[in-house]
Amino acid sequence: MILLPLLCTGAATAAMLSQPAKSIGRLLRPDQVPQTNSVQEQYLVALTRNDEAGWLAVSENFPPDANSTNTNYYAKSMLQLARFMMSEKQWKQADAVLERLSADPRIDRLYRTLALAQRCLTLEQLNDSRRLGEVRTQLQAAYRELETSNRDAALLLNRLIPEKDRLRLGLQPIVNSPPSS
Asked: Which domain of life is it from (predicted)?
């Protein structure tokens, strides 16, 4: 009679241990993300959650086509989604997000260039040397174009991308002096 409850407890414990572990954070963060009153608030919710559902909710609740503010937050949230995926070693998914973002003409050139730089990192992880070469060439061209058209953005990019990565990607840092007239 005592043996039956012990067997049931043992079977239940074995079943629980065979299931993938769920973090407390995942249990507390359902996939349904509540809509906020502004795109800025939605982005901050995504920032605190730092999960796929949170980052996707930014553009789902505030479509990028509605206005330029939404477009900028869409770009920022997709860059963060890709970073999240990279941290989870979801390289193919991150590359797909970055590929769409870097090719989207609605997106500010700075964000598209950052997406190209992050794509290079994902393609390195995927050992895809053919596409890495293509994307690196696109990145170098975008960087030169940014340097010519928006020097402040190019300088910001220099600060955002570590020097060792810039050199590896073939991005020559610009000098912090004003352009000659």
From this structure: Bacteria
Q: What is the pTM of this model?
A: 0.78
| Element at 136 (helix H, strand E) | helix 129-149
Tell me if 33 sits within 8 A of 49, measured CB to CB. Answer: yes
Using the Cα atoms of residue 119, residue 123, residue 125 and residue 129 in order, give the sign of their dihedral: negative
> Which residues, in sequence order, are CB contacts of 87 under 8 Å at separation 6+?
none
CATH of 35-169, one of 3.40.50.960, 1.25.40.10, 3.20.20.100, 3.90.380.10: 1.25.40.10
Mean pLDDT confidence for 9-32: 53
Q: Please give the angle made by the CA atoms of 113, 119 and 123, to the nearest 5 degrees.
A: 150
